[in-house]
Amino acid sequence: MSETPLRKPRILSGIQPTGTFTLGNYVGAVRNWGALQQEYECLYMVADLHALTVRQEAAALRRQTREAAAMLLAAGIDPGRSILFVQSHVPAHAQLAWVLSCNTQFGELSRMTQFKDKSAKHADNVNAGLFTYPALMAADILVYNADLVPVGVDQKQHLELTRNVAQRFNNLYSPTFTVPEPYIGKTGAKIMSLQEPEKKMSKSDTNANSFILMTDDADTILRKCKRAVTDSEGVVRAADDKPGVTNLMSIYGVLTGKSFGAIEAEFAGQGYGAFKEAVAASIIDAFAPIQAEYARILADKAYLDGVLSQGAARAAGLAQRTLTKVYKKVGLLQL
Ligand code: ATP
Ligand code: LTN
Q1: Which of 11, 25, 114 to mutate to test the pocket of ligand 1 (most atoms within 8 A of CB)?
Q2: pTM of the entire structure?
Q3: Domains, the chain, with CATH or none
């Protein structure tokens, strides 16, 4: 008995090429992306237009865009199963973003915590793009009618805005967009800075000891783990007043599949030295195969650029259909 196969639910996600990916990017986002390819039709993009909201050096941005794509491939994104592309290669994102920005309120954008954080951090360049960033992100998602968006917990507010914009547009015109759901992993959705564990680990942090990069070698990873801020109790256990130790336990837990209970038992009576070494080893083991692949892919520019240009062509085909519908619904003349 054969049944008509249903369309697999669709996923879209993106990451900015603002620097080398951190352990936070890996655990919160990239790691899940590969795992989702089996059950979903996936589109993954390097969000280079979003990166322009903060000043970038042109040559560095170009290099980081290729590096980001190579890292995604190395981390398990399979271009035979998923569409991998660069945001600026599909013009429909920017085109839809304009229409959506005319359907997004100043008040809504003003409430975004990422805007508040980034405008405080870059007080000399609080540009309009930084403010309307979420309308472009909504366009990224809605242009493909994505069902699910895997992100770290810091992006939840942008997802809620996307849902509101989609619903508003659907009500004002007629059903057009799929209203997407966020997909936030249960553990490790927010990896904290190793130096200030109350803050999220961020690739743009000025203190290099606060993050682990996916390209860090084994010695560097070990050194950064050993320097990670903990507390004076000397007991490996998770608690709200032990953010440093709890963060290390989350990292170790996600990478080894062990529960907090099992980790506490494993290091009972051992102090932080052995624990930090084990955390470092779990990161080194996770990154070693990815780093080897990354070097290989990055050295093969023809292959990498081929994947990206095919990805852009496939994505553009899907995106154009939505854009044409939207232009028509809002009354833009089509000849
Ligand atoms: P920046 O430091 O430039 O603001 P970022 O490191 O926050 O960048 P993004 O490109 O903004 O990285 O985010 C890419 C993805 O990684 C998003 O889904 C985001 O939620 C996730 N992510 C970023 N940092 C963390 C973290 N510390 N823990 C878990 N997930 C994270
Ligand atoms: N804003 C995201 C990156 C991003 C994104 C997207 C994520 C841009 N467009 C669409 C999911 C879906 C961030 O991680 N800072």
Answers
A1: 25
A2: 0.93
A3: 10-188+300-330 (3.40.50.620), 208-294 (1.10.240.10)
